[in-house]
Amino acid sequence: MTIRRICCIGAGYVGGPTMAVIADRCPDVQVIVVDLNDQRIAAWNDADLGRLPVYEPGLDAVVGRARGRNLFFSTDVDGAIGEADMVFISVNTPTKVKGLGAGQASDLRWVEACARQVAKAATGHTIVVEKSTLPVRTAEAIKTILEAAQDPPGNGDVPRTFSVLSNPEFLAEGTAIRDLETPDRVLIGGEDERSIQSLAAVYGQWVPDDRILRTNLWSSELSKLTANAFLAQRISSINSVAALCESTGADVREVARAIGTDSRIGPKFLQSGPGFGGSCFQKDILNLVYLCRHFGLPEVADYWESVVHLNTWQQHRISRLVVQRLFGTVTGKRLAILGFAFKADTNDTREAPAIRISRDLLEEGAQLAIHDPKVEPSQISRDLRLESVVPDPETGTTSQALSGQGSWWTAGSVEQAVAGADAVLILTEWTLYRHLDWKDLAQRMRRPAWVFDARSVVDRAEVQSAGLTYWRVGDGAQ
Length: 478
Ligand code: UDX
Ligand code: ADP
What we know:
Elements: E1 5-9, H1 15-25, E2 30-34, H2 38-44, H3 59-66, E3 71-74, H4 77-83, E4 86-89, H5 109-121, E5 125-130, H6 138-149, E6 161-166, H7 176-181, E7 186-189, H8 193-203, E8 212-215, H9 217-248, H10 252-260, H11 281-294, H12 298-325, E9 334-338, H13 353-363, E10 367-371, H14 377-384, E11 407-410, H15 414-418, E12 423-426, H16 438-444, E13 450-453, H17 460-465, E14 469-472
Parallel strand pairs: 1-2, 1-4, 2-3, 4-5, 5-6, 7-8, 9-10, 9-12, 10-11, 12-13, 13-14
Adenosine-5'-diphosphate (ADP) is lined by residues 9-15, 34-37, 40, 77, 90-92, 110, 113-114, 132, 279.
């Protein structure tokens, strides 16, 4: 079956870039991305490509080439499903906040709603592709819902039938376009050989066949969780060693280089920092933990859960350390937070380390001036569950300063953020922060002043020669 029309439900960080690249690489396939959120769809259709709802290097060029040609964004979910040969489900699956499995299991209400909508609106044979990160065996639930809606054999000329595939997404935000255009591998899980072939033929337009792996449904779903758990585990491992380096005089960068040259270990994902964030790592590990407990494997569950515990600990450790260095109190003190996104080159803040660290400091009564080149102030406000304040333009502080109540505001530039600050915390590795003029910034700060570099992006000698006290993660020399 040759695929001519694709519908993708969910125009988020996964659905948007993935479909843009498919449309770009397959000009003969019509791709419609649908979403219930009309503001999001309007932003994807914005004539100004600088205002797409997802910030991702190179995305504007890809959307610019394909949009209006064979790439469309719409809120007409049923219409797009009805016309499609293949429907991707790419909706959000956050961790459940209440009920059975709260705090660990994924909330599948949006996936289930999608399956029911596909069951209702599809025509002819439809291949349904699971693209969201889902717990193992979700495809079974989708299949059951769809099978209940299938036409019995012999019913009409073109009976409504379905087959379900799992096609996990391995793109990392910030490098999504590169990851989609030259993937290490594409994974397709399923039972129906013809459907697998149809999807493989779509990717085959730009991905070499030996990089398209075919597995059964459950292996495909479990591979996604396992890949993310392994990657996250490397980060917790190196962060645990960073803490030991700080106490013993070693340098975590040197240790990472030394172990990374062992070809069995490899150099990637050994960057110590403020812990991992993003929409996948924590959620996927907690999913794995839930599954293991469900299947009677508590030791395996505990093993993976410790990766998340170490990550949370690392974030609290950094905020504690800041308080301790600033003479045991940050109440009323001005701190500059540089970077709020969970990593550079994205406007995504889901599970960003900056959230937990900022909340800890607000709890201690700090006054935070937050700078990020791409994150909207309204997003920061939702993440901190606190409205911003307007500081006094003269003093750069607020009337709440000594009341003990923490407060925050956004700074339009790094210079504004550091004005009058006692300390700078670098929490995201934006390139901009690698080239700061520390002599100039130091003049704007209140002395004695500190730089806490949780991403190892600045030059120690430069900061120290500007008269600032420097701390960076995993450096035992300080
Ligand atoms: C991840 C997976 O990499 C991707 O394959 C999957 O599809 C989705 O989840 P993403 O979360 O977008 O992608 O970004 P990633 O580059 O993996 O970074 C995740 C977090 O780990 C970030 O907070 C990043 O700063 C942190 N990280 C990464 C480190 O702290 N150190 C490292 O060495 C690498
Ligand atoms: P991801 O990172 O997985 O792409 P996002 O939250 O960025 O997650 O995007 C998921 C999108 O899916 C959201 O824009 C949301 O509005 C959309 N969505 C959720 N449920 C449905 C549904 N039933 N029909 C259409 N769109 C949906």
